[in-house]
Specification:
The protein is mainly alpha-helical and 116 residues long. Helix content is 39%, strand content 7%.
């Protein structure tokens, strides 16, 4: 009955379902297959931002142990780390860009945070 309610476009929360997302389930596994290999094949310095270590597959774990990319874990973040911890993500990405010489750092005394 709830599914029928959603198909009709009315829910108790006021959201309207425009597509039957479940119908696309047959394609979900293909969306991510080979993604680790593609990531690792990029011939540039790489930074991988993750919400936790359980997101690393075997291929990425091995490559990380070999130093092929930098990984940053955000253990207190959900699926969208950039939305959950925007300041921390910005700090990590900007540090990476400066370290790899893609950007030049600036000295801003007002931006220095106390360590304790």
């Amino acid at each position: 009955e709830e599914v029928e309610k959603r198909r009709e476009g009315s829910t108790e929360h006021g959201y309207t379902w425009r597509v039957d997302l479940g119908a696309s389930e047959v394609y979900w596994s293909g969306w991510y297959s080979g993604m680790s290999k593609l990531f690792l094949s990029v011939p540039a310095p790489k930074l991988l931002l993750l919400a936790g270590p359980d997101r690393l597959d075997t291929e990425l774990t091995r490559a990380h142990m070999q130093g092929k990319f930098q990984v940053q874990m955000f253990n207190h973040a959900g699926h969208s780390v950039q939305e959950d911890l925007p300041d921390k993500v910005a700090d990590v990405v900007s540090s990476f860009l400066v370290r790899q010489r893609f950007a030049q750092g600036t000295y801003d005394p007002a931006a220095i945070r106390p360590c304790c």
